[in-house]
Design brief:
Length: about 200
């Protein structure tokens, strides 16, 4: 039994490493720790390989986007710490910003769906493009510390878990179920922080 487990781990070492780093990434995100970004960057590099091998082409492209956003978020959070007495603060998304994000999500979804449907052999083009579009928006919101990005992640992570079951990516299924729980915890923790900062500003 031990040999079977070890053989499986060796055959899936890239995915397992990505899943472990992914758990660390979400923990750091909840804690608003700057290590969110280097950990996320490494996770994304590993998952580019995993998703390419599984024909999750939109997901693979999303990981490349995560690499870029990780660099951006890393810089943005560090800049906030260097120019203020405290780190960049959690904030809520305005109605105007929601409108922009919804329109952007729809456009990105349609564009990715068209590409997957016409130029790849993807067998899940609609859901792959949907989760990718929402993930692009949610990751940008994380970099800017909009609290509602956690709510988007709850939906995306649950839907993604079902997709990865279909693709037999079991370490990734477990990872995204953990992501779902952590997204809920992240929302509650960030909400506490938001209320605390708001009360301090009023006092």
């Amino acid at each position: 039994m031990t040999n079977i487990v070890l053989e499986w781990l060796l055959n899936n070492k890239i995915e397992v490493m990505g899943a472990v780093l992914g758990v660390l990434y979400i923990v750091f995100s909840v804690k608003q720790n700057i290590l969110t970004w280097p950990t996320g960057l490494l996770t994304s590099l590993l998952y580019i390989v995993v998703f390419y091998n599984s024909k999750f082409y939109a997901g693979m492209g999303l990981q490349a986007y995560y690499v870029a956003v990780s660099i951006y978020g890393w810089f943005y959070w560090l800049k906030g710490k260097s120019t203020q007495t405290q780190s960049v603060q959690v904030r809520k998304t305005s109605a105007k910003m929601w409108g922009i994000l919804i329109i952007f999500s729809i456009i990105i979804h349609i564009l990715i769906f068209f590409i997957l449907l016409n130029f790849t052999d993807s067998d899940v083009p609609y859901l792959d493009s949907l989760t990718t579009a929402l993930s692009i928006v949610a990751t940008w919101m994380l970099a800017r510390k909009y609290i509602e990005h956690w709510l988007i992640w709850i939906f995306v992570d649950l839907l993604s878990s079902a997709l990865y079951v279909y693709k037999n990516l079991w370490p990734t299924v477990i990872l995204f179920l953990i992501y779902t729980v952590m997204a809920y915890l992240g929302y509650t923790e960030w909400l506490k922080d938001f209320k605390k900062n708001k009360n301090e500003q009023l006092s």
